[in-house]
Amino acid sequence: MEEKRTAKAIVESFAHNTIFEYTPEMELIVPETDRGNSLSKIAFYFRDNDLTLSDLYIGYVVSLYKYTTVKVVYDTLRVLGDFWPKKNIPKNVSQEALHYRMKKMCQMGMLRRYNYQKNGMNIVLFTTTSEFSKAIYVSLKLNTDARPEKDLIAPIEFMMKVSASLAANELMKSIFLKKFDFLASYTNQELGKNMLYCEITTQRDGVDFSTIVEPFFTRCDLKRYTEEEWEKELIKRAKVVLGYMKERYSKKEGMAQTIFVVEDKTDFKVLSTLVCNLFPEDMLGQIYFTSEGALRSGNFDLKNSIIRIVNTREALEGNRKILGSVTSQVQYEFF
Asked: Which of 69, 116, 205, 269 is the most exposed place for a label (fewest CB within 10 A)?
């Protein structure tokens, strides 16, 4: 059995060998072969049986995560194949064959690839086109993200959502999985209508545990925000999670917890201080933090890659003591 890592070791791993890291000069490129698409083009492929039911489910999984990798799609297809055994989900496809088909779906206007370079590597991310998201909904009646503005979001949003997909994918693998909602919304008078990344519900001993996964990168994209605007945006995002959790508690709908997915240790310091200032102390036990680096260095064992604040006094004293204010001795049974 693998030895449990200390909280300090987990925090130190937050930026460990990260692939999905935001840089101000980052450029994401759509290959020329992927750029043409239309709903009529997709309908043509469907009519000629070039588009299969398996394609619709592959697209549905990609749409859940917004932006993600072949490996996450592969893992999730296997989960959904067991979760919905009567549906024709391609859970037995090899990862290599899936990658080939997804590249073909890009050429057919169903998916879109975004490429970027890091350390000499070509990193590839996938998303659904808005037209294909509509086709999935019409054909399968499954909610998908068909907003065309997905093509216009800032690179930092790509990186946040891809990193969050890694944590969400691990939660989806739980043997206690009951339901999932990747379009969870929260509305109130102060904050308006907001979308959370996802909420995954597991059930154990008759109790529902709703786990929100929310990406939270704090580095400012100065091409799109001033530092003041970005600070307000970060506070708003934290308040959305707080409001949603309070709503869950008020309705007494089981237990609710949040896993914030940060980029690095700096993010953790900023966000943990923000959480300690905004969230009531009795709720801090349900707030967890992880990152792509922590997940990778922990072999994607979520239980060994998350931490929570247990000492608000030290957390609020500043960044110098933040490593002494966390613990990995948490209750993992809701996973």
From this structure: 205
- The Cα–Cα gap between 223 and 215 comes to 20
**Tokens matching residue 28:** 């994401």
Q: Give the tokens for residue 118.
A: 């890091």
Helix (H) or strand (E) holding 204: strand 198-204
The backbone torsions φ and ψ at residue 3, rounded to the nearest 5 degrees and listed phi first, read -70, 140
Q: pLDDT tens across 126-152, in order?
A: 999 888 888 888 888 988 888 877 777
Residue 108, C-beta contacts closer than 8 angstroms, at least 6 positions apart: 37, 41, 42, 45, 50, 51
Tokens encoding 216: 């939270």
Percent of the chain surpassing pLDDT 70: 87
Choose among 192, 307, 288: nearest CA to 240.
192
In order of 29, 302, 323, 327, the CA distances from 267 in angstroms are: 27, 19, 13, 17
Q: What burial letters (b/e) apply to 257-284, b meaning 16+ CB within 10 Å?
A: bbbbbbbbbebbbbbbbbbbeebeeebb
Residue type, 133: S
- Residue 225 tokens, joined: 């925000």
Please provide the size of the chain in residues: 335
Q: Which residue has the tokens 């490129």?
A: 29
